[in-house]
Amino acid sequence: MAVTKHTKQILARLDEAYGTEQICYLNHENAWQLLMATILSAQCTDARVNIVTKDLFVKYDSLEKFANADVKELEEDIRSTGFYRNKAKNMIACARRIIDEFGGEVPSSLDDLTSLAGVGRKTANVIRGNIFHDPSIVVDTHVKRISKRLGLTKHEDPYQIELDLMKELPKDHWISYNMQIITFGRQICIARSPKCEECFLADLCKVKGK
């Protein structure tokens, strides 16, 4: 795949600013903990999820405990992450399916992961990249917003953005790009007030100052 000069410049500057080390912002010790944390992270900050899972993973220290959890009690345990009713229901169903269908091991394929309750492509790709080190692109709010600003996609739909980035980015940058863009989005290209005057990608941005 031929990478454009524009893309090469973006990636080189991101690499220089943030390095290429794989970083996961959700605290976890194993695959199922990351899966549960990622389900909780929908419409919630990683910082809040990490506060909740600090106690949650002590109380529910196995998939079996999640599978057998009382839904109302789990709702209260995760209430502060928002959308707690759906999340609690999905976490229990997800744990049960992993135990019943996959022998208690979080599956690695995209199809198997997305067959789990509460798991879409974004969550599946988080698991694939961070646990199984399978090159994958996670389209979260930062990646969606900033990829458009940088002209790497024109789409709004996360799946179409994922396809565009798979074509635009070299495979060895698929995982690191997401990590870098999350940091960049939190520090500089902030959604409500981007710091364009501090941005090291300003000359490559298609909507600078907007």
How would you characterize this protein structure?
The protein is an all-alpha fold and 210 residues long. The chain has 2 domains: 5-22 and 137-204, Endonuclease Iii, domain 2, CATH 1.10.1670.10; 31-130, Orthogonal Bundle (Endonuclease III, domain 1). Helix content is 57%, strand content 0%. Helix 2 runs antiparallel to helix 6 and helix 2 (31-40) runs antiparallel to helix 8 (121-130). The longest helix has 19 residues, at 84-102. The radius of gyration is 18 Å and the shape is elongated. The model has no long low-confidence stretch (mean pLDDT 95).
Question: Would you summarize the structure shown here?
Answer:
The chain is mainly alpha-helical and 210 residues long.
Name the overall outline.
elongated
Secondary-structure element order, N to C: HHHHHHHHHHH
> Which sheet architecture does the biggest sheet show?
none
Name the CATH superfamily assignment of the largest domain.
Hypothetical protein, domain 2
CATH architecture of the largest domain: Orthogonal Bundle
**Level of helix content?**
55-70%
* Category from helices, strands and their pairing: mainly alpha
**What's the Cα radius of gyration?**
18 Å
Rounded mean pLDDT is 95
Instruction: Classify the fold: give the CATH topology of the largest domain.
Output: Endonuclease III, domain 1
Compute the number of strand runs: 0
Catalytic activity: 2'-deoxyribonucleotide-(2'-deoxyribose 5'-phosphate)-2'-deoxyribonucleotide-DNA = a 3'-end 2'-deoxyribonucleotide-(2,3-dehydro-2,3-deoxyribose 5'-phosphate)-DNA + a 5'-end 5'-phospho-2'-deoxyribonucleoside-DNA + H(+)
InterPro entries: DNA_glycosylase (IPR011257), Endonuclease3_FeS-loop_motif (IPR003651), Endouclease-III_FeS-bd_BS (IPR004035), HhH-GPD_domain (IPR003265), HhH_base_excis_C (IPR023170), HhH_motif (IPR000445), Nth (IPR005759)
Family: Belongs to the Nth/MutY family.
EC number: 4.2.99.18
